[in-house]
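Appendix C: a fully annotated inverse folding record. The material below is reproduced so that readers can follow the format used throughout the book. The structure is listed first as tokens, followed by the designed sequence.
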């Protein structure tokens, strides 16, 4: 009787399957050890212990020599950004976060309200799985680690492939600080190199909470993993300069923001919308600040997207390298810091209207403020909905007009956008490197990701005197208008 044809095993395929199995087993083991450490951390926890662990992680990146090494390593291995700005980012973002959490209660009873009879007890989430981008391979994981530890959690990182070296060194520094205070190093771990989609996917599936900053592909995978997720939307910041603005200040702030860390931030301006009444004057001020006005977009678009993808020779590069890659070094002033490229198109067929991750901003002209708002709304509808917009204006009412007219979670007024969106010492936003974009951006949060997102509560509910209204207390006004 004829049987199934026997085929020789494919040794290569078998080896790949075995390696894949081993990779997933590694992730399983790391998360298991993190879970064991977290259980003990919470069971034997205290506010002092949580605070000390967070301080240790913060000092690991803020200590000046370590900060400099991490910044240098990040630029060397990712090819993105620049060292001085990485140092500033590592320091200020971490210092601001430590200010935000200094007095936050994250252990034991955190509120007790006799009026409602409800007592809230802080509880950890468990093991946090954090996917971090190559644009900020030290600052972003440090932020997530500090928040996790402050709230009683363990954390396992999955860095982008280029971010692995900086992430490994950061963890070495944190573990060295943990040795000083006798803390369990298993509380802070990472998926072993080399990274892979399979390893990251496993981490997403078996963690207790996922935090994802970076590619929108990772964000989508997080939200479909079956694990509670905090993942943020894409940035494509648009900023309006109206006829009431302080044009010199606006030009200087936009330039400082756009060029910081070579535009690696999701909060970097990607489009500038000027109203006609001040367009020429503003462009003069922008030129003084270092922004070169390019009126013909054809060459820029061809060089920035030579094969339909962003040119890696331009992404997050210093001004001289960016200009050389775009063939613009002889066409703009020698002190040029970024390019403002005039365009009118918005949408998939007009790449300048999207995120550019480079020292290139799209420039749109508007007849008046209402037209500028309409243009901003179209840009966000194409990309970046929910993230943030900027406004340079001395008309106080216009911020509210903009806030209610476009799909955005933040309107940054008269500030350098990159420095303001993720928290600043001169505004009240929480310090963060991850900005939630609400339903507009397909996100579960509309706030800056911060420490409160890393904690949950158990509530004790006690009986209180009855508080039952009469029907008239609720419906009297309605009956008066509509009748019974």
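Designed amino acids, in order:
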């Amino acid at each position: 009787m004829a049987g199934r044809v026997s085929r020789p095993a494919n040794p290569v395929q078998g080896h790949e399957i075995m390696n894949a199995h081993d990779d997933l087993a590694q992730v399983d083991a790391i998360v298991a050890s993190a879970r064991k450490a977290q259980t003990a951390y919470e069971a034997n926890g205290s506010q002092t212990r949580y605070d000390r662990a967070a301080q240790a992680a913060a000092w690991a990146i803020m200590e000046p020599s370590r900060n400099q090494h991490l910044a240098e390593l990040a630029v060397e291995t990712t090819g993105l950004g620049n060292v001085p700005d990485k140092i500033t980012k590592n320091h200020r973002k971490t210092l601001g976060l430590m200010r935000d959490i200094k007095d936050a209660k994250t252990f034991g009873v955190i509120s007790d309200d006799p009026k409602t009879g409800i007592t809230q007890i802080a509880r950890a989430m468990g093991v946090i799985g954090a996917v971090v981008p190559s644009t900020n391979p030290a600052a972003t994981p440090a932020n997530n680690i500090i928040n996790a530890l402050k709230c009683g959690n363990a954390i396992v990182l999955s860095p982008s492939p280029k971010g692995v070296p900086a992430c490994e060194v950061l963890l070495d520094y944190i573990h060295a600080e943990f040795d000083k205070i006798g803390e369990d190093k298993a509380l802070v771990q990472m998926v072993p190199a080399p990274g892979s989609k399979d390893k990251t996917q496993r981490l997403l599936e078996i963690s207790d909470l996922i935090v994802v900053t970076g590619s929108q592909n990772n964000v989508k995978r997080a939200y479909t993993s079956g694990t509670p997720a905090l993942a943020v939307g894409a940035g494509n910041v648009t900023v309006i300069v109206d006829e009431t603005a302080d044009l010199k200040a606006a030009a200087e702030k936009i330039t400082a923001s756009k060029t910081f860390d070579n535009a690696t931030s999701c909060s970097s301006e990607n489009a500038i919308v000027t109203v006609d009444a001040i367009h020429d004057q503003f462009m003069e001020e922008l030129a003084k600040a270092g922004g070169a006005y390019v009126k013909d977009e054809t060459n820029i678009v061809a060089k920035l997207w030579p094969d339909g993808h962003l040119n890696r020779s331009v992404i997050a590069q210093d001004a001289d390298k960016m200009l050389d890659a775009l063939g613009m070094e002889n066409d703009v002033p020698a002190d040029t810091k970024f390019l403002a490229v005039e365009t009118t198109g918005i949408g998939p067929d007009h790449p300048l209207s999207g995120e550019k991750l480079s020292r290139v901003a799209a420039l749109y002209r508007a007849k008046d403020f209402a037209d500028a708002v309409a243009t901003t709304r179209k840009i966000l509808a194409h990309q970046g909905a929910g993230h943030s917009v900027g406004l340079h204006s001395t008309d106080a009412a216009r911020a509210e007009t903009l806030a209610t007219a476009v799909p955005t979670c933040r309107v940054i007024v008269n500030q350098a956008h990159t420095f303001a969106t993720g928290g600043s010492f001169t505004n009240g936003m929480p310090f963060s490197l991850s900005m939630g974009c609400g339903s507009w951006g397909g996100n579960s949060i509309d706030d800056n990701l911060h420490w409160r997102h890393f904690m949950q509560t158990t509530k004790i509910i006690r009986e209180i005197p009855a508080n039952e209204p009469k029907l008239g207390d609720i419906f009297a006004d309605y009956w008066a208008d509509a009748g019974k």
